[in-house]
Amino acid sequence: MERNYELGIAFANKKDQQDELYSVRENFYIKEDEIYMDGNSLGLASKPAEKELLNMMEEWKEKAIGLWDGYFHFGLELGALMAPLVNAGENEIVVTGSTTSNIHSAISTFYHPTKERYKILVDDINFPTDRYAVDSQVRLKGYEPEDAVKVVKSRDGRYINEDDVIEAMTDDVCVILLPTVLYRSAQIVDMKKITKAAHEKGIYIGWDLCHAIGAVQFDFQDVDPDFAIWCTYKYLNGGPGAVAGLYINKKHFDKLPGIAGWWGNRDDTQFALKHAFEHQKDASGWQVGSLSMFSMAPLKGSLELYHQVGMEKIREKSLDLTAYLMFLIDERLAKYGFSVGNPREDDKRGGHVCLEHDEAYRICQSLRQNGVVPDFREPNVIRLAPIAFYTSFAEVHKVVDIIEDIYVTKKYEEFSKTRGLVV
């Protein structure tokens, strides 16, 4: 899509005046002296989320154990609220566990290696927790990762080449796990192309949507993945460590969950307390333990905003914000050695911009001291995530002002090159 941008704060202010989503900012707790550009790591607190959390506290105070009468299926109900974000069936998503525990749950369900088919196919630039879980699962089956985990190497350390993935789908591969949006480069991988190729070869395929859900539109009815996992504390603003999402394609509801627990048992026999597991044949059958109510309640409030606004408008503004940021980088920062390290095309980039520079780490530290919250990723990336719900065009413009000032005045030289614990 062709967009025409102009330099100067007046243009940014004009964009904000024309933005029909600008008023949504009022739902979030935004600090007056801070520009938050890290919503792809942890979304901001919202008033609807706070309301639902406090409401859950009142429910506990007033009803005690009677609370369960209204929230027994809360995980599936939240999944139904989330389903429109990926165009999935209402009973194909459950809010449960964490990203990593859900990877274990899904892989253990679909990974049943044989002598002929025993490998799991992954890439080498995904967020590492996915690989840790996959390696653990193959070890549990008696294999070593060096033998049973097949790694598709990125050609440049930034992007995944879809054709390379398809070429690696040999007869010994039985499961694939890949990211939809790469955390470092913001590349959107062609899910439909790869999923279609995997199914043609009889391979189960799952997708990690952690850096995509809530920022990018998906159509699971069309893509038809076997499973997917994601966190809810980034773009979905569910709160720190919020309970994660798990998608199981309805065609697999008859499969026995690889990791079973009593909350995944059939409703009608759950409190019969039998020692033989009878799993509920929808996504809720993959739940393990009792619901983490206080970590789930804020997500309900956040999802209300998604329903009010709609993913189409959210994605449209996200693309506009990131395109504007890239324009300013090209026009104002490129001369100082800064560059854009993510795809430019709308259909190939997620919700954040990867600003690359040799001094990225120290500039990132200086940004924090100067009222901007970004994050850093090795080896030279400052990730900037202007969020459709609460970032203005004027703030994007000011961030570039601050970056230019930090570089020209060499403020970044005040900081050590030694990496901190959380970067």
From TrEMBL:
Modification sites for N6-(pyridoxal phosphate)lysine: 234
Annotated binding of pyridoxal 5'-phosphate, by residue: 99-100, 127-130, 208, 211, 233, 262
Pathway: Cofactor biosynthesis; NAD(+) biosynthesis; quinolinate from L-kynurenine: step 2/3; Amino-acid degradation; L-kynurenine degradation; L-alanine and anthranilate from L-kynurenine: step 1/1
Domain of life: Bacteria
GO molecular function annotations of the record: kynureninase activity; pyridoxal phosphate binding
Keywords, comma-separated and alphabetical: Hydrolase, Pyridine nucleotide biosynthesis, Pyridoxal phosphate
EC number: 3.7.1.3
One GO term describing the cellular component: cytoplasm
Catalyzed reactions: L-kynurenine + H2O = anthranilate + L-alanine + H(+); 3-hydroxy-L-kynurenine + H2O = 3-hydroxyanthranilate + L-alanine + H(+)
One GO term (biological process): NAD+ biosynthetic process
Signal peptide per UniProt: none
The protein's required cofactors: pyridoxal 5'-phosphate
One Pfam family here: KYNU_C
Subunit details: Homodimer.
Task performed by this protein: Catalyzes the cleavage of L-kynurenine (L-Kyn) and L-3-hydroxykynurenine (L-3OHKyn) into anthranilic acid (AA) and 3-hydroxyanthranilic acid (3-OHAA), respectively.
Family: Belongs to the kynureninase family.
Stored PANTHER family: KYNURENINASE
HAMAP family cross-referenced by the UniProt entry: Kynureninase
Protein name: Kynureninase
